[in-house]
TrEMBL record:
The keyword Signal applies. GO terms for molecular function: serine-type endopeptidase inhibitor activity. It comes from Mytilus galloprovincialis (Mediterranean mussel). PROSITE patterns: ALPHA_2_MACROGLOBULIN, PROKAR_LIPOPROTEIN. Residues 1360-1446 form the Alpha-macroglobulin receptor-binding domain. InterPro entries: A-macroglobulin_rcpt-bd, A-macroglobulin_rcpt-bd_sf, A2M/Complement_sys, A2M_N_BRD, A2M_TED, Alpha-macroglob_thiol-ester_cl, Alpha-macroglobulin_TED, Ig-like_fold. Keywords: Disulfide bond, Glycoprotein, Protease inhibitor, Serine protease inhibitor, Signal, Thioester bond. This is CD109 antigen. Pfam families: A2M, A2M_BRD, A2M_recep, MG2, MG3, TED_complement. Residues 1-20 form the signal peptide. GO terms for cellular component: extracellular space. Belongs to the protease inhibitor I39 (alpha-2-macroglobulin) family. Residues 737-828 form the Alpha-2-macroglobulin domain. Residues 494-629 form the Alpha-2-macroglobulin bait region domain.
């Protein structure tokens, strides 16, 4: 029989052994990190004397960048320390050269991997969510992998959701390494997710926190379900729990809804009985703290016939009985056929060592991966090993099997199964023959399952085995493991096992070492976080087995790798390894303890703090209600553990419960694998065996049985007020963050602080971290909780905001946990910013400023409510003060309620370009005016300055315009501007790493989202496949934008090819392009038939931009030529300014001389005003009055005028014509809105491209300006700002008093900058001219709700492009989205749900009316409602709009009794 492969391996092994010199072994981590020490382990095996070992780190040019030297003697291993330079650069190749001189000479080298990460940044904020006007508090620290503190400065930037840099810190530092500061937010910040970006050296980290308008939840709802369901059960049970944050039970009603997680009908559903199918099942029942519920599996089968492996969701909504406040929770349950599963632990090695014990570990779990409870049987384990069968023939063609003996009773512990003989196999396609093997059984075992679900058993594998397989069975489930032998040319093996479970820092653990021969000693290396942390030797004393102990230190946490090894006399390195988790990552032990578990509000509390002496301890305590909204603000042990594991050269990560309790033997099939799989490089002249698999087929694996696979009393009247307990304290301190403090501990490492508890009835959650110059970072092991409670208290139920002039009913909930029933007097204090509605005993009502009281009788343990109707008359924060008194207890609370103006929001912006390049001073005055119908209290004025013409747009990248982003073209507004901003910053050398990463992130997200609007043929449309066809215009726009971005992010060339091929198919014989889809941008039609000239120019621009894409020009060359010829032939016919502008730019891109001819004609059509120049598309439209009875001091031009002027400016930029371009630039900068964008999407994108290209031409970094903004008329105001190159891109915003009538901008110095005055206000009705008609009809009108129909049509000639309808929702009401009806809206496309607003998209509006209708229901007690706005506008020309208002007469005239009834002393109807 042929044994070619085996002979080759044998010869190779002999040669390797004979070549080994056996003089040294060097090992070190395969990864180096800047600023850290790399330990190089050296073991001199043979030498005439001490050996001087030098370790040199060299770059790709063989230049030594780090070096370390040490004298090492034979038999006394040691480490050479190599300090890696902090300034080591990424992107280069590095190698480690080891040289020995003196008693032994050697040299060796290996490439090493460079990882820039050598420190971690940790960020803590006091909360994860904030309200406008609150203060963001933060702490930042950097740590090394050993958790010592990094003493380097931080650069910190905070960005709002628009991308505006709101604040920055440079070179921020504190002596102890923890930098702490705060940011006070304005009352009108941008809502959404904010980002804090921090860099420290080469390390960078981000923390996201949310700014939103919210009301803290008063109670928490949880749904408890079984961990899984079984299809064999008849039913399953669950529990809904509702608890206040202070721990008491909530009484009310619960509604639960069960539905499939993935709501599609199962494949096998009976189509002949569709009535049997339901989408969900609901139950309702009362709740008092908790309630149980039951669903039968028969009910579930109405949702899904086959329950196995189906996920169900149960949603629970709990309505508090006294307030109607609702909270919800949900939970999931999945169903399985079997109650258990079995598998081998994933970390088990696939190789055994002949002659040594192989320890196998099974896990028997429930379907939810938790240990089985009360196992119903033992685990049956069948094992076989395979030995080679020496045969004399190779012609066997049949397989012989024998019938297995009948299974024994479970009481028998062993069983023999007949062997299976396999023939010799030959596969001509895969190589030489595989020798036949004989499968030898091992007695069957029946094993008990431990309480943790683990089954451990040892296997003594015979030395002649060539493979080994194990099959384990439990109930109907089975698991299989195939093992192969570990390879050694001398068949020498060693094995290390951990004898302790759950090792902890500070603990001495026992290690068992066993070998197949008896070495004198064995050496070990302990590796953690990618470096060698401990080395030593283990005396074997000529024995094959020994036990030794190792002290576990924090440096070994959270995961340690132990490698043991020795060198045989013939030079072969014999090794093994084990990896295990280590608890106790912190040397610095920190604790925080409240002296009491529960206290009264406003009490003084002693808090014990402890950490290492001289540590600074940092304390955070936050309201549990905030954590119910959002978490993630704190520094946690899990977070740090994951950070530390990221330094592991061989990988890290989470390990399941059974792995954390055990160790992981090193994986691999030979000695080389052991080191490699532990992230170590070995240099040696001894034999580090690396087994090479012979060229032969894979082994055949057969099983005797199948493997199961998973499928898919009376109370007297009220007492006299004089007999009530007086109020001693007003509860008005309701912070969401209580403790945010730090202390330096004395030499004892202990201190006690005395703090005052806030007034909130809640639970406080407190944590602490400490830093120490020696022991580094430490954290509290778990949060400490303090319950703040009083047996009698009240809660104010306030909405986040109300509208001025509406009647709002305040609800005060009184909680009586006293030992007796009580009469309670509740008083709402007088406030001149609100009127109270008073009810007299006669039933008459009157409004006045008054102090109002209510009596309520409360039983012991009861909760009751009193109601106070008020009418807010001032905008801003309204102070609500309430007291509650009984004969034995009292409480007082003071809170603020936000009152907003009525009407519809308006704004205008006055940009001021400050040009001090040729003059030394500048001043300009701007007027601030408001229309007569401005609603009271709604005025707001801000002034801002920034030292860069592109600055407002750079800072506002995420929200350049106040419009929705729900279609394929609008999405590009999140994509394209980043391209031009990057180009501009590159030209001006200002593209910093944070902007680089941010802009790329936006582009990548925009790219991915745009693909959802792609059709199968490669084209794009506004709403993707829901449109009948792609559009030529949008497809060209996507091609152009993707091509411009292709240098910055990856974009698949195939996308370009498909889109370009589709565009080519739309071209006619004369060179024009057809538009088969919806016309989105109507202005592009210009003056030519169906917009053929402007559309052709637009596609030509896109095709030229796509020339940068490989293979694009081959597809478009002929089309470009035909389009160019057509446009050149149309030049003399051009009279429309938009067509002239876009055609001139397109022809400039293809270097046509006709471009300059058009440009010269455009000069004669320009409008020159006050040193600026621009063009109008349609003089009649451009001169149309935009406002009806009032005009702002500055009005933005039409979007089409901005767009065409931008095309002309780009033409000037391409011609380097600064003289003609500057007046255009001045005009264009004056058209920006307060967000950095313009009017709509296309004008914003083209204008930003033009600004970026031209501003880059005139940019200079030589500037230093002092800008003063001052009021010379009206209310006094003055503020000053100095702009230098360092802060040029930081937007500085000032709040201006609303009494200011004009502002003057003074400037001196040198440079170019931009100031803006933004004016915001509300008006009671529309102040702009109307381009649409809007009709609103209210029907089905009750005090509890109404049905609204909104109809709109276009008033002018033709039709609009894509248009938006925005429907405002009245106060205290919510839209019922299920009731929306679009039957009479044929052009409707989609909807978006925003805060108190419904946004609807339409392809177009024309003279034909389109109508939508929906139900709106009352959810809060609000009467005398104010009108709500409805607005329709052309998306691409927003000035063409109409705003109307609707108001239910019934709700306008609704009274207190309509919304509050008998609870507000009204008679029953």
């Amino acid at each position: 029989m042929r044994r070619d492969g085996l002979i080759f391996v044998l010869i190779f092994s002999v040669i390797s052994i004979s070549c080994a010199k056996n003089t040294y072994v060097v090992m070190f981590p395969r990864t180096i990190r800047p600023g850290l020490v790399t330990e190089v382990y050296v073991n001199i095996l043979e030498a005439t004397g001490p050996v001087t070992v030098t370790a040199n780190l060299q770059d790709s040019k063989n230049i030594t960048v780090a070096s370390g030297t040490k004298d090492i003697s034979v038999g006394t291993p040691s480490t050479v320390q190599l300090q890696i330079p902090l300034d080591l650069k990424a992107g280069l190749d590095y190698g480690l050269k080891i040289e020995g001189t003196g008693g032994q000479r050697f040299a060796n080298w290996s490439k090493v991997s460079f990882q820039a990460k050598s420190t971690s940044i940790l960020i803590q904020t006091d909360k994860a969510i904030y309200k406008p006007g609150q203060t963001i508090q933060f702490r930042i620290l950097g740590v090394y992998p050993d958790l010592s503190i990094v003493k380097q400065t931080f650069d910190i930037d905070i960005y709002d959701p628009k991308g505006n840099k709101i604040a920055q810190w440079r070179d921020a530092a504190e002596e102890n390494g923890v930098f702490a500061d705060k940011l006070v937010m304005s009352d009108h910040p941008v809502l959404g997710d904010w980002k804090m970006k921090v860099t420290q050296g080469a390390a960078a980290e981000e923390k996201v926190f949310t700014v939103d308008e919210y009301v803290l939840p008063k109670f928490e709802v949880t749904v408890d379900l079984p961990p899984y369901g079984l299809t064999t059960d008849l039913m399953f049970h669950g529990t809904v729990k509702a608890k206040y944050t202070y721990g008491k039970s909530v009484s009310g009603n619960a509604n639960i809804r069960l539905k499939k997680k993935y709501n599609h009908r199962s494949w096998g559903w009976r189509q002949d009985h569709p009535e049997e199918y339901v989408d969900s099942i609901e139950q309702s029942f009362p709740i008092d703290g908790e309630s149980k519920f039951t669903f039968s599996l028969g009910q579930l089968k109405r949702l899904q016939q086959n329950l196995a492996y189906t996920d169900f969701v149960i949603e629970a909504n709990v309505t508090e009985g006294v307030t109607g406040l609702k909270m919800k929770d949900s939970a999931e349950i999945k169903f399985y056929d079997n109650p258990a599963k079995i598998d081998f632990v994933e970390s088990l090695p696939a190789n055994y060592k002949p002659g040594l014990i192989y320890t196998a570990l099974l896990k028997v779990t429930q379907p939810d991966d938790k240990p089985v409870v009360n196992p119903s049987s033992r685990v049956k384990v069948e094992m076989f090993y395979n030995v080679e069968v020496i045969t004399t023939t190779t012609t066997t063609t049949t397989t012989t099997t024998t019938t297995a003996a009948p299974l024994p009773e479970e009481g028998n512990l062993t069983e023999v199964v007949e062997a299976l003989i396999e023939p010799e196999i030959y596969d001509p396609w895969r190589g030489p023959l595989v020798p036949p093997t004989k499968r030898v059984p091992i007695p069957v075992m029946y094993l008990d399952i431990n309480p943790d679900g683990l089954v451990k058993f040892d296997i003594d594998v015979p030395t002649d085995a060539v493979s080994f397989d194990i099959e384990a069975r439990y109930m109907k489930e089975s698991a299989y493991k195939y093992l192969q032998p570990f390879k050694s040319p001398s068949k020498s093996f060693i094995q290390v096992r951990l004898l302790n479970e759950k090792p902890m820092a500070g603990q001495t653990i026992s290690i068992d070492v066993k070998a197949t021969e008896a070495p004198e000693k064995v050496f070990y290396q302990m590796i953690s976080k990618g470096n060698i942390v401990k080395t030593g030797e283990i005396p074997m004393g000529g024995l094959k087995q020994t036990e030794f102990k190792i002290l576990i230190t924090p440096e070994m946490a959270p995961k340690a790798r132990l490698i043991i090894n020795y060198v045989r006399p013939d030079g072969e390195i014999v090794t093994d390894g084990v990896t295990f988790s280590v608890d106790g990552i912190f040397k610095n032990k920190v604790s925080l303890k409240f002296m009491k578990d529960e206290v009264l509000p406003g009490s003084n509390m002693l808090v014990d703090l402890q950490a290492d002496p001289k540590s600074q301890i940092n304390v955070l305590a936050v309201d549990k209600s905030v954590l119910l909204l959002k978490t993630g603000n704190d520094i946690s042990e899990d977070q740090i553990t994951k950070e530390l594991q990221s330094y592991d050269n061989a990988g890290g990560g989470y390990y399941p419960y059974y792995a954390r309790m055990w160790y992981w033997p090193s994986t691999g099939r030979d000695a080389s694998d052991v080191f490699d799989n532990n992230g170590m490089v070995v240099l040696t002249d001894a034999l580090l065996y690396n087994y090479q698999e012979p060229f032969r087929p894979l082994p055949v694996m057969m099983m005797n049985s199948p493997v199961a696979f998973g499928g898919m009393g009376g109370v007297p009247g009220p007492p006299s007020p004089n007999g009530l307990k007086p109020v001693t304290t007003v509860r008005k301190i309701f912070p969401e963050t209580w403790m945010w403090l730090n202390k330096t501990l004395p030499d004892t490492g202990k201190t006690t602080i005395n703090v005052k508890v806030p007034d909130t009835i809640t639970s406080w959650v407190a944590t602490a971290f400490a830093v120490n110059p020696e022991s580094g970072l430490g954290l509290t092991a778990q949060p400490s909780n303090l319950n703040v409670f009083m047996p009698f208290f009240m809660q104010l139920v306030l909405p986040y905001s109300v509208v001025r002039g509406e009647l709002v009913v305040l609800q005060i909930n009184i909680h009586n946990y006293l030992a007796t029933s009580e009469w309670v007097l509740v008083i709402l204090e007088k406030n001149m910013d609100m009127e109270n509605e008073i009810t007299y005993s006669s039933g008459a009502r009157k409004r006045m400023h008054a102090k109002v009281g209510r009596w309520i009788k409360l039983l012991k343990g009861g909760i009751g409510s009193v109601f106070f109707p008020i009418v807010p008359i001032a905008v801003g924060q309204l102070k609500i003060s309430v007291t509650a008194q009984t004969a034995s207890a009292s409480d007082a609370v003071e809170k603020d309620l936000l009152v907003e103006p009525s009407g519809t929001a308006q704004e205008y912006n006055i940009p001021v370009l400050i040009d001090l390049k040729t003059v030394g001073t500048f001043n300009k005055t701007v007027n601030i005016t408001f229309p007569a119908n401005t609603t009271a209290g709604s005025r707001r004025v801000t002034a801002s300055v920034i030292g860069d013409l592109m600055g407002p747009s750079i800072n506002g990248l995420e929200k350049l315009i106040k419009m929705p982003y729900g279609c394929g073209e609008q999405n590009m507004l999140n994509f394209a501007p980043n391209i031009f901003v990057r180009r501009y910053l590159n030209v001006t050398n200002n593209l910093k790493s944070n902007m680089d990463s941010k802009s790329k992130e936006y582009m990548i997200k925009g790219y991915q989202r745009e693909l959802t609007y792609q059709h199968d043929d490669g084209s794009y449309s506004a709403f993707g496949n829901s449109d009948k066809s792609g559009t030529t215009w949008l497809t060209a726009f996507v091609v152009k934008s993707f091509a411009q971005a292709s240098d910055d992010i990856f974009i698949d060339d195939k996308l370009f090819h498909k889109a370009l091929d589709w565009l080519v198919l739309q071209q006619t014989e004369i060179g024009t392009f057809k538009e088969p889809g919806k016309v989105l941008h109507k202005a592009m039609q210009g003056g030519s038939a169906a917009g053929e000239r402007s559309l052709t120019a637009f596609v030509l621009i896109a095709m030229k931009e796509a020339d940068v894409i490989k293979g694009a020009s081959d597809r478009t060359a002929r089309s470009i030529k035909r389009a160019t010829t057509f446009l050149e032939g149309e030049v003399d016919k051009l009279i429309d300014t938009y067509e002239m502008a876009i055609v001139s730019y397109a022809l400039k891109l293809v270097n046509s001389p006709k471009s300059i001819i058009i440009l010269e004609r455009l000069k004669m059509l320009a409008v020159d005003e006050d040193g600026t120049r621009y063009w109008k598309h349609n003089a009649k439209e451009s001169n149309e009055k935009k406002y009806s009875n009032w005009n702002p001091p500055h009005s933005q031009s039409n979007a089409i005028d901005i767009e065409l002027t931008s095309y002309i400016l780009m033409n000037y930029a391409m011609n380097n014509d600064v003289e003609n371009g500057l007046p255009v630039l001045r005009w264009l900068t004056s058209q920006r809105n307060p967000n950095g964008g313009f009017a709509s999407t296309q004008d914003t994108i083209i204008a930003l491209q033009a600004l970026a290209e031209f501003a880059g031409e005139i940019y200079s970094n030589d500037f230093n300006m002092e800008i003063t903004i001052k009021s010379l008329k009206g209310e006094k105001f003055e503020d000053k700002h100095i702009i230098t190159r360092d802060n040029a891109l930081v937007l500085k915003v000032f709040e201006v008093p609303t009494g200011v009538e004009e502002l003057t901008v003074f400037a001196k110095g040198k440079g170019v900058s931009l100031a803006e005055v933004a004016v915001y206000f509300y008006t009671a009705d529309d102040i702009k001219t109307s381009a649409f008609d809007i009709n609103t009809t209210i029907s089905e009108e009750t005090t509890k709700g109404l049905r609204l129909q909104v109809c709109g049509r276009w008033r002018q000639e033709g039709e609009t492009g894509m248009s938006i309808m925005e429907i405002g929702i009245p106060s205290g009401m919510t839209p019922d989205y299920e009731s929306l009806d679009f039957t009479l809206a044929p052009e409707y496309k989609r909807k978006e749900e925003l805060f108190r607003k419904l946004v609807l998209y339409f392809d177009k509006f024309d003279a034909q009316e389109q109508c939508v209708s929906l139900n709106i229901v009352r959810t809060d007690r609000v009467a005398e409602l104010q009108p709500s706005p409805v607005r329709i506008y052309d998306y691409y020309e927003p000035s063409k709009q109409k705003t109307s208002f609707y108001l239910s007469k019934l709700l306008e005239k609704s009274t207190l009794c309509d919304v509050c009834g008998t609870e507000c002393f009204c008679k029953e109807k």
